[in-house]
């Protein structure tokens, strides 16, 4: 429950605001930039909500904007913060990008949307597809037709009736990203697979869909024997269209999809996975004037798969210069703007192993107490929350492996029925694995 | 995309003159097809309103004229204007009432709802009075979109004029909307009722099992926000039987798989709440198992949601530790986590650390202690020291790591380490003195009062074992007069300790210090303590020794756990702002309705009694004689009927409140000084005092919290 919503530029100047409850003077917003900078001076750990003189400020940042909500009550903070994110999502779909300029360019529609998306501080319809049916500049020209879509108050609040396609198609993208934290001595501290099934749905009418996965729990509950690998998902989250109780009962994923693109579900697996691209690094400092990096990268997946666009980003000291590289594959370049060297390998075959050696000069002689480019520069360290240049950064690894999922998840079937129209339809499935957040901590300088 | 017609309007953001705009608004006449000219003029006016150009008020009569035009676009702009300026010129605004009334009879539900919503936003007596009869009618509108709007309308009207609403039958009518066959309407009615209930003692909100069951049944047919409202309302249901509670918990559990994090967190809140009424331990364990994965998944969301999840994990870990028996590794920091996330993760790592995982934890903390952010590094160092106190068998390893960090000579690390090592000495007297030598090597890098005071304490305490303790103290005493009071107090006590342990070495220093501290200071605490020592030393050396060098009460690292009544309250508020601040709700939200576990035959007392503060928990729930059919009136009466313990809690909240109000008005500098006066009992004369054994008694809280008083980010653990 929010009393008012504000859009501010980065200096804290209000661009547009909507007052929903009138219990907080709108001038309270003027305190926001002051409080924020005071808090930042005090500590680098400024949380996304704070309170001052009985008024609570909840905010998120997006491009060159702050979205701010004020409230006096002990309100559902998750709800408010999420609503602000939804506003970003909806406005981005409406205006392509949400930034200072787009606020001014579309202020009339923004007021309309704010009036529709929240009432008396309570979030209402936040589905942009549905909103677009009755809040558009164009709809005003067709005056009479603008009515609240049934979806606004219907049980199926995400899809309108009467959608027609000549060719009925569904595209499924199974996208997995791998998050890894590896210690300097090569121990995998944390590994996690975050998967998502994204859909592009171009189907007529009110189709009923049922999706079958090689879900271990489902096989177990239905007593079916497992042919091939079944996967065990630690946690699953569904788009609001999926019938959750049905899933809870017999693990059936059944739903009436929204029209167009959306994320049907996301899942998380905690299984210990070996890093698909294993990186080892040695750092050697030569009398403080030169620093040398020796990297070994190995693809730990089957020979028939290939990782594309592999990038290994190695942080180096800010003031390093005169870089020299040697490698048996790909290209290496120095990126001083991010204080890193970047090793790019277009195609990295399974089971292959490559080496790279980099040498950089260090203009200033420094003490031997330096820990991987971190500590000595550490004074006055308020970096606004995100590790800046001088932060102790790990090696990052980026890649994409098509036609492959780390977890082994498989779409067994996607059944589509539209009882009234009974059309034939085509589901398409693609799999891809991406690097998520892969961090290999740098070893101490030898 | 539809924004082709819109967009590009930033050119309208030019300060407009009233006369020009009026002319533009009224120009065109019949030639103005589709009111194109009017629309542009209105946009200009709205743009000016957005820029807070209050000259626009002068256009009120012209705007009223425009409201008659049957164009939705024009209407919306006029209504926006009306909502914005009605309170400035109520006498003109009232002319809009007939137009709004007329619109409420429009055949288009969008127009009816818009008119009603607009009218109810206006806090002007005439508008409120006119809206009341209209809402009654609209609550029975044929279109659910209008009924949903009307439901929130009642809450708005209650906000404007509660007496008028109470005298009408609006709340009853809103109540009967709960039987509506449209789930969205029901959820909106619940949200409206909860909003009113939150502010009023006059209404009851009784949800029995049948009601609760019905609410759960429509959950799946509501939008994500509707689901949140229903789940929140379920917190007002008091289970009378254990079976009811577990059945309901089972039925809402599927919501944990919702992609909306707000639904998930609110569902976690309700399940945690229902667990208080479930007798079967197996069911409790099964539910706990269900809560864990969704909580961990929230950590993969954006930083704001992550932070909320972490703050709530701190609570859940204390109330239901089995939920987070998970691998501690999920809380390991990513290098690019925002600092506020890292700091909270650090607290969780500290809480989850045990003998089994300590090696892994220390490796991780060592990593953090060499990061760039000073605030975070300090907390990491402090955490290492506190782990030495928390996990006895690992003390040696923690201390070794601290010494390794001290060897980096980074001043803030050395100072932080010095402070925690002092506490380690308190915890393990006569065990790790060998490290004193290492500490003494870094005396020069100490420039923060807290670190200095800690070092001085060590020197005083071990004056007989540090060969040159007198010389070291003398060095410090050189600048006695310039030191902050915290250090002066430490020096005074340390010098006395030196004298007691090694009279020959201390006999020159003591009189000097006592003289400074009694004659050349304005600080009453310093003076009083000096006089006390003076008398003590001149009366009876033996008693002086037993008092000054007396055994100190043990310290623990666990004492920062929330008080059980606060913890209970926090758990009833999972996902709300209070869980971010981790402070008693009333201390931040003065007018908030207190939430307590309501007694019922199903309420499980014994589990709560396991808490540290057994007595308080028991007396808190000692309302066994309450009638079983509890309504909100009795609920409201609970705090006052409860035992002194609960009242004590209230007073504490009040005290915290007052203190916060006070501290928010003074700078951190003074605040730090305040703390020193009040809170230095951890050392020096420590043994005599009854409080302050907490490791963090000396934590520089002012540094850790944005000093915005009441709502500042109250870290649970001051690491």
UniProtKB/TrEMBL annotation, chain A:
- SUPFAM superfamilies listed in its UniProt record: Second domain of Mu2 adaptin subunit (ap50) of ap2 adaptor, SNARE-like
CDD domains registered for this protein in UniProt: AP-1_Mu1_Cterm (cd09250), AP1_Mu_N (cd14835)
Q: Per UniProt, which keywords does this protein have? A: Cytoplasmic vesicle, Membrane, Protein transport, Transport
Report which superkingdom the organism of origin falls in. Answer: Eukaryota
Query: Pfam families in the record, alphabetically?
Result: Adap_comp_sub, Clat_adaptor_s
Q: Which GO terms describe its biological process?
A: intracellular protein transport; vesicle-mediated transport
Q: Which InterPro entries match?
A: Adaptor_comp_med_subunit, AP2_Mu_C_sf, AP_mu_sigma_su, Clathrin_mu, Clathrin_mu_CS, Longin-like_dom_sf, MHD
**GO CC annotations?**
clathrin adaptor complex; clathrin-coated vesicle membrane
Q: Where is the MHD domain?
A: 167-441
Where is it localised?
Cytoplasmic vesicle, Clathrin-coated vesicle membrane
UniProt family annotation: Belongs to the adaptor complexes medium subunit family.
Quote the protein name from its UniProt record.
Answer: MHD domain-containing protein
Which organism encodes this protein?
A: Trichoderma semiorbis
From TrEMBL, chain B:
Would the keyword Transmembrane be found if you checked this record's keyword annotation? Answer: no
- An example Gene Ontology biological process: intracellular protein transport
Q: What sequence ranges are listed for the domain Clathrin/coatomer adaptor adaptin-like N-terminal?
A: 29-539
Asked if Magnesium is a keyword of the record, the answer is: no
What are the UniProt keywords, alphabetically?
Membrane, Protein transport, Transport
Q: Write out the annotated subcellular location.
A: Endomembrane system
Q: Name one GO cellular component term.
A: membrane coat
Q: Which domain of life is it from?
A: Eukaryota
Gene Ontology molecular function terms on file:
clathrin binding
Q: Which Pfam families match?
A: Adaptin_N (PF01602)
Task: Return the InterPro entries for the record.
Answer: AP_beta, AP_complex_bsu_1_2_4, ARM-like, ARM-type_fold, Clathrin/coatomer_adapt-like_N
Q: Which family does it belong to?
A: Belongs to the adaptor complexes large subunit family.
Summarizing the function annotation, the protein's role is: Adaptins are components of the adaptor complexes which link clathrin to receptors in coated vesicles. Clathrin-associated protein complexes are believed to interact with the cytoplasmic tails of membrane proteins, leading to their selection and concentration.
Q: Which PANTHER family match?
A: ADAPTOR COMPLEX SUBUNIT BETA FAMILY MEMBER (PTHR11134)
Q: What is this protein called?
A: AP complex subunit beta
- Source organism: Trichoderma semiorbis
Query: From which lineage does this chain's organism come?
Result: Eukaryota, Fungi, Dikarya, Ascomycota, Pezizomycotina
């Amino acid at each position: 429950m929010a009393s008012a919503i504000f859009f501010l530029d980065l200096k804290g100047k209000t661009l547009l605001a909507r007052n929903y409850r009138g219990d907080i003077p709108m001038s309270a917003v003027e305190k926001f930039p002051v409080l924020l900078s005071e808090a930042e001076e005090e500590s680098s750990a400024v949380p996304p909500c704070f309170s001052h003189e009985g008024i609570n400020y909840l905010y998120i940042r997006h491009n060159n904007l702050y979205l701010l909500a004020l409230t006096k009550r002990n309100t559902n903070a998750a709800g408010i913060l999420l609503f602000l994110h939804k506003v970003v999502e909806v406005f981005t779909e409406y205006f392509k990008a949400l930034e200072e300029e787009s606020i001014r360019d579309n202020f009339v529609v923004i007021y309309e949307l704010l009036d529709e998306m929240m009432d008396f501080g309570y979030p209402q319809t936040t589905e942009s597809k549905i909103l677009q049916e009755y809040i558009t500049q164009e709809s005003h020209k067709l005056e009479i037709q603008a009515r609240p879509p049934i979806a606004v108050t219907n049980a199926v609040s995400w899809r309108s009736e009467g959608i027609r396609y000549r060719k009925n198609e569904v595209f499924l993208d199974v996208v997995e990203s791998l998050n890894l934290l590896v210690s300097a001595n090569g121990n995998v501290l944390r590994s996690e697979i975050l998967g998502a099934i994204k859909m592009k749905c171009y189907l007529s009418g009110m189709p009923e869909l049922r999706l079958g996965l090689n879900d271990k729990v489902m096989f177990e509950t239905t007593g079916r024997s497992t042919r091939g690998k079944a996967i065990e998902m630690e946690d699953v989250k569904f788009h609001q269209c999926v019938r959750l109780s049905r899933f809870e009962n017999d693990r059936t994923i059944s739903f009436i999809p929204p029209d167009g693109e959306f994320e049907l579900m996301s899942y998380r697996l905690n299984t210990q996975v070996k890093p698909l691209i294993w990186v080892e690094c040695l750092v050697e400092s030569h009398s403080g004037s030169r620093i040398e990096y020796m990297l070994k990268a190995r693809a730990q997946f089957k020979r028939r798969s290939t990782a594309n666009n592999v990038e290994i980003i190695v942080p180096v000291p800010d003031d390093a210069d005169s870089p020299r590289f040697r490698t048996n594959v790909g290209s290496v370049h120095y990126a001083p703007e991010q204080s890193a060297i970047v090793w790019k390998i277009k195609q990295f075959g399974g089971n292959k192993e490559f080496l790279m050696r980099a040498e950089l000069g260090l203009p200033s002689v420094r003490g031997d107490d330096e820990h991987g480019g971190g500590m000595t520069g550490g004074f006055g360290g308020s970096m606004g929350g995100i590790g800046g240049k001088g932060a102790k950064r790990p090696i990052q690894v980026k890649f994409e492996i098509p036609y492959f999922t780390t977890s082994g998840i498989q779409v067994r079937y996607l059944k589509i029925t539209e009882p009234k129209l009974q059309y034939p339809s085509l589901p398409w499935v693609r799999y891809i694995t991406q690097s998520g957040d892969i961090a290999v901590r740098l070893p101490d300088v030898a | 995309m539809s924004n082709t017609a819109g967009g590009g309007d930033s050119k309208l953001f030019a300060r407009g003159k009233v006369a020009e705009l009026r002319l533009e608004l009224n120009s065109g006449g019949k030639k103005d097809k589709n009111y194109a000219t009017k629309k542009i003029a209105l946009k200009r006016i709205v743009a000016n309103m957005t820029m807070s150009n209050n000259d626009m008020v002068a256009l009120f009569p012209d705007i009223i004229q425009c409201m008659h035009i049957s164009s939705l676009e024009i209407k919306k702009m006029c209504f926006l204007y009306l909502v914005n300026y009605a309170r400035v010129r109520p006498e003109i605004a009232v002319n809009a009432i007939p137009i709004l009334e007329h619109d409420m009879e429009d055949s288009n539900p969008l127009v009816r709802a818009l008119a009603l919503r607009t009218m109810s936003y206006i806090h002007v007596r005439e508008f409120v009075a006119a809206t009341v009869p209209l809402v009654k009618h609209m609550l029975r509108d044929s279109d659910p979109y209008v009924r949903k709007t009307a439901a929130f309308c009642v809450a708005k009207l209650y906000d404007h004029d509660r007496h008028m609403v109470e005298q009408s039958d609006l709340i009853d009518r809103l109540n009967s909307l709960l039987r509506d066959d449209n789930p969205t309407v029901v959820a909106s009615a619940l949200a409206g009722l909860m909003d009113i209930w939150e502010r009023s003692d006059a209404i009851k909100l009784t949800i029995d099992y049948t009601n609760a069951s019905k609410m759960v049944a429509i959950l799946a047919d509501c939008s994500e926000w509707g689901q949140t409202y229903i789940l929140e309302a379920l917190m007002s249901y008091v289970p009378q039987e254990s079976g009811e509670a577990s059945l309901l918990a089972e039925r809402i559990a599927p919501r944990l798989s919702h992609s909306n994090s707000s639904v998930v967190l609110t569902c976690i809140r309700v399940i945690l709440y229902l667990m208080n009424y479930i007798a079967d331990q197996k069911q409790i364990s099964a539910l706990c198992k269900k809560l864990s994965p969704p909580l961990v998944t929230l950590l993969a969301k954006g930083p704001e949601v992550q932070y909320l999840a972490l703050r709530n994990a701190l609570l859940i870990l204390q109330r239901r530790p089995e939920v987070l028996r998970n691998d501690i590794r999920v809380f390991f920091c990513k290098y690019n986590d925002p600092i506020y996330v890292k700091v909270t993760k650090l607290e969780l790592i500290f809480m989850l650390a045990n003998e089994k995982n300590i090696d892994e934890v220390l490796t991780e903390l060592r990593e953090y202690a060499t990061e760039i952010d000073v605030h975070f590094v300090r907390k990491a160092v402090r955490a290492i020291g506190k782990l030495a106190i928390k996990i006895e068998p690992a003390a040696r390893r923690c201390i070794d790591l601290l010494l390794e960090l001290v060897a980096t000579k980074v001043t803030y690390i050395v100072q932080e380490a010095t402070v925690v090592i002092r506490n380690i000495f308190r915890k393990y007297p006569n065990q790790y003195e060998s490290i004193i030598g290492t500490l003494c090597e870094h005396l020069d890098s100490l420039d923060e009062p807290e670190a200095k005071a800690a070092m001085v304490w060590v020197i005083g305490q071990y004056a007989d074992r540090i060969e040159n303790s007198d010389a070291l103290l003398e060095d410090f005493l050189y600048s006695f007069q310039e030191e902050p009071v915290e250090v002066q107090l430490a020096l005074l006590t340390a010098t006395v300790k030196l004298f007691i342990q090694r009279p020959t070495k201390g006999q020159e220093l003591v009189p000097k210090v006592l003289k400074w501290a009694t004659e050349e200071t304005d600080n009453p605490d310093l003076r009083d303590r000096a006089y006390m020592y003076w008398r003590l030393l001149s009366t009876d050396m033996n008693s002086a020794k037993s008092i000054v060098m007396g055994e100190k009460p043990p310290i623990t690292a666990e004492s920062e756990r929330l008080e059980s009544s606060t913890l209970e309250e926090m758990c009833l508020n999972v996902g709300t702002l209070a869980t971010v601040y981790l402070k008693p709700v009333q201390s931040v939200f003065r007018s908030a309705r207190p939430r307590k576990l309501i007694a019922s035959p199903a309420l499980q007392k014994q589990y709560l009694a396991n808490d540290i503060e057994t007595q308080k928990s028991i007396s808190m729930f000692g309302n066994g004689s309450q009638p079983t059919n509890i309504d909100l009136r009795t609920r409201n009466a609970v705090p006052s009927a409860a035992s002194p313990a609960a009242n004590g809690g209230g007073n504490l909240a009040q005290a915290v409140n007052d203190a916060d109000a006070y501290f928010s008005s003074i700078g951190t500098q003074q605040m730090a000084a305040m703390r020193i006066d009040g809170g230095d009992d951890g050392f020096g004369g420590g043994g005599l005092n009854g409080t302050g054994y907490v490791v963090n008694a000396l934590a520089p809280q002012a540094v850790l919290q944005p000093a915005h008083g009441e709502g500042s980010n109250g870290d649970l653990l001051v690491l």
